[in-house]
Amino acid sequence: NVPYQGLPGTKYERTFMMVKPDGVQRQLTGEIIKRMETKGYVLVGLKMVTPDEKLVSQHYDDLKARPFYKGLVKYMSSSGPVVAMVFQGKGVVDYGRVMIGVTDPLKSAPGTIRGDLSVDVGRNTIHGSDGTSPAQDEIALWFKPEEVADIKNCASAWIYEK
Ligand code: GDP
Ligand code: MG
Hints:
The structure is a single chain. By secondary structure, this protein is of the alpha+beta class. The model has no long low-confidence stretch (mean pLDDT 97). It starts with 13 loop residues before the first strand and ends with a helix. It is built from 8 helices and 4 strands, in the order βααβααβααβαα. The site of guanosine-5'-diphosphate has 9 residues, from loops.
């Protein structure tokens, strides 16, 4: 059994991703999940949540000194639901960030989620954990252990050499 926050450095590494309110409203959830799944990453946790200010503040705790923090917390906690997700696979934390693009969508390469789907930094559609340690903290913040599945993916033998 895999610990629910994953095993960094293995094919059971896990990351936290979240479709932000703009992505939900623009009906991009399916597109985002599709990109991660077709890469070979496994969706092991999924729920729609309308986070309160407390949850969003905890999530963005490291940014509280930044000038945009207040607006960010307000936006994320008062614009309707987000879709919280846990994805599993080798390198999913760092490569998930590559697939997302950089923070500013206008600096994100085409082919990335933000590069293809977003324009503004304050409406950049998706969150992804920035490192394996934050990934474990964020999974624990947004999900209970029983909300993350232990899935034996039948395609695994065709995605991984071993
Ligand atoms: P991320 O890891 O790429 O999402 O970026 P950060 O962790 O640095 O920031 C978290 C979120 O805050 C970003 O995804 C943006 O939505 C928002 N943000 C970051 N920098 C800025 C900024 O300069 N202005 C505004 N308005 N929002 C920002
Ligand atoms: Mg970040």
